Amino acid sequence: KMVAVLQEAELRYRGKAVIEFIDLDEKPEAAARYKVMMIPTQIFYSADGKEVERHMGYLSFEEVEKIFEKMGVERSS
């Protein structure tokens, strides 16, 4: 379910935000690097690389959009 949400976010925020999906089955070392305790986990970073928000569990596109709005990220034209 999260893959579809992230694909939609990637389309609507192209050039405004970097959306990266990491499959922990393929890259298990990323779990420790990003301190992932549950799948799915979404981590939002500011432009300068600081973690702004972390959410564990499913997140709808509308909820992702609200976080982007709070961060001041606008949709692509």
What are its keywords?
77 residues, alpha+beta, globular
Q: Your description of this structure?
A:
The structure is a single chain. With 77 residues, the chain is α+β, with helices and mostly antiparallel strands. The chain has three helices and two strands. Strands 1-2 form a two-stranded antiparallel sheet. The mean pLDDT is 96.
Q: In summary, what is this structure?
A:
The protein is of the alpha+beta class and 77 residues long. It has helices at residues 2-12, 29-33, 61-71, and strands spanning 41-45, 51-56.
Question: How are the elements arranged and paired?
Answer:
Elements: H1 2-12, H2 29-33, E1 41-45, E2 51-56, H3 61-71
> What proportion of the residues form beta strands (DSSP E)?
5-15%
Helix content: 25-40%
Question: Structural class, judged by helices and strands?
Answer: alpha+beta
* Count of individual beta strands: 2
Could you name the ranges where pLDDT drops below 50 across 5 or more consecutive residues? Answer: none
Strand adjacency order, main sheet: 1-2
Q: Count the helices. How many?
A: 3
Average pLDDT level? 96
